[in-house]
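hey all, quick one before standup. I had two proteins in the batch that finished overnight and I want to keep them in one place so we stop losing track of which output belongs to which input. First protein below, input sequence then structure tokens straight from the run.
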Amino acid sequence: MHVDIVDLRQFYHSQLGRVAEQSISMALASLWARLPEERLVGLGYAIPYLDRFRADTERAFAFMPAGQGAVNWPPGELSATALVFDEELPLPDSSIDRVLMVHSLEFAENPRETLKEIWRVLAPGGRLVIVAPNRRGVWARMEHTPFGSGRPYSRRQLTALFRETNFTPGATAEALFFPPSQLKTILGLRSAFERLGRIFSPAFSGVIVVEAQKRLYQGLPVAVRASRRVFAPVLAPQGVPTTRDIVKHLSSHLPPSTK
């Protein structure tokens, strides 16, 4: 089950959320220094990080899963947000240069299908970065932050998932080495925790940040599949006749001279 959009916004507006965002942004910057004139999509709840990277991009979109909900972004501008199903992205093939997944993979109903869909929309040589809760870290065990919900991953699991879905694993980084506490003392020592954690215990970070590149020299099996999403109109009660039924009924009651 996805974390609700209201809870995500509240977390990133809190002091703990702002500090967590800074830590993850530093890890992202070590992988993506700049995105010159590229098309970037954030999938999940990535807008705190899109704000930092979109200045260099050609355009940036925020795709938010239907189970999570969506908010308008960027504020005060034309909306670049879309409510989507992560296995059926409303994009043409090979149309995006980079995809950033935050608060996304751990909630995916079928992670392999989600990554295959991302492979489809990425351009040749396109890159994907996933920020996922570390199953060894403390953050994945504490439910008062969004990183404590969904399915956490290990680095080995992410690497295996990339290879199964035709991605080549690349650079990695870690973030959130400090405890997920609201105490000002702990938050004040955040920089020291981050420094020491990267040196002595990188395996126990709160999140894993992994980059992968779209692989082209091995084809994915082609399969035609019907959408599993069924949309039922809310305002059309069952048994309402169609326009064709009405015309047929009226025609049967018209006098022969008027038919």
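OK second protein, same deal, sequence then tokens:
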Amino acid sequence: MTTSKKAVVILSGGLDSTTCMGLAREAGYDLYPITFDYGQRQKREIENARKVAEFYGVSDRHKVISLGFLKEFGGSALTDESIEVPAAGETGLEGSEIPVTYVPGRNLLFLSIATSYAEVTGAEAIYIGVNALDYSGYPDCRPEFIRKVEEVMALATRVGVEGGPIRIETPLIDWTKAEIVRQGNRIGVPYHLTTSCYNGQEEACGECDSCRLRLKGFEEAGSTDPIPYREA
């Protein structure tokens, strides 16, 4: 599918970003997915992202970018193996309002690099699956963060200076997980190709915060999650 308008999709291989991919396609965009290998425990998600890109017929445009230095920095349960991923019943707040699964600067870096890809490809929008309801403790998932980054993009890019700034699209920003699943099912999002587990095993653990939110979303949407779980 080739159209006159293009969108870069930040694709993690998880439920939210894959739903964004489907929504961008539904909106008539030609898709340019970009995935980041930032030293996350969940290496499996990178392969899932490749499968999603293949499903949508855009494997030739799918970029996988290495940001391994985030693992060197540590500071997150997703990149630092000395920090345990919170299991069921644990908050993971560690004395603050920011969960230990927050990766410092991650979305800021993702959006900066996606902006470069968008400008080179002529994309007018960047889709990112941030959600302020389920991840309200993450500072880089808030609407005000997105708007400020969009302002900087307009100042820092040639297209922005010339009057055609790149937009950041966040269709999931205020949806519950159930709403995300319902909308994804409506447009045929391939959830069987996705993974959300923080632990990165062959079967999702069913216990980490991400698994629990995903399972809850499918249950409240009246649907069955198609991926295998060790615990549910």
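Flagging for whoever picks this up: Residues 16 and 129 are 5 Å apart (CA to CA). Helices lie at 15-26, 44-55, 69-73, 106-121, 143-156, 158-161, 177-186, 209-220.
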